[in-house]
Amino acid sequence: MGRLHPELPILGKGPIICQYPADPTVALGYLSLAFLLASSIAGYFSLFYPYQQKSVPRGAFFKSTSFSIFFNIALFTTGLAITLLVWPTVTEQIHLTRNVHHNLEIACPTTMTCLLGGSAFLYLDSSLFWLVALMLARNAQEDYFDEIEENGDSAKAL
């Protein structure tokens, strides 16, 4: 995974023992996962946070088509980013812990670094979609309060 030094296969009479150089990839992968989850959870809860200390029913948000679209895209890209981050991180951890291989035809296995790059790109995309959804949530909240205000004024006129 982006190593400067290749892994060293140690050949014996039976299986191959792979000796991998020291690499922080697994630790950084789990740290990235923690930050991805924290920012996504913060993005989700910020959408439904009370506006000017007045709560809005969740159904009012989803009346806005653009909010619904960006909310679902943000959820999808977050899930895909998590998948593309967990897959190579866990696979690399398995390769490092189970370094004895019985298939003599292949070299020491490593994970694909392109998955981590794709995950980083989707992580950025999901953050931007959460931001757009937050802006649309504020618009939906203002529309909800305007609608309540209009209904209250028309009820007073009757």
Automatic annotation (TrEMBL):
GO CC field: endomembrane system
Listed A to Z, the keywords are: Membrane, Signal, Transmembrane, Transmembrane helix
Task: Kindly indicate whether the keyword RNA-binding belongs to this entry.
Answer: no
Q: How does it sit in the membrane?
A: Multi-pass membrane protein
Where in the cell does this protein reside? Answer: Endomembrane system
InterPro entries named in the record: DEAL/Modifying_wall_lignin1/2, DESIGUAL
Q: Where are the transmembrane segments?
A: 30-49, 69-90, 110-137
Its main localization is: membrane
Q: Which PANTHER family match?
A: OS07G0462200 PROTEIN-RELATED (PTHR31769)
Protein family: Belongs to the DESIGUAL family.
Q: Please state what the protein is called.
A: Uncharacterized protein LOC111436717
Species of the source: Cucurbita moschata
* Gene encoding the protein: LOC111436717
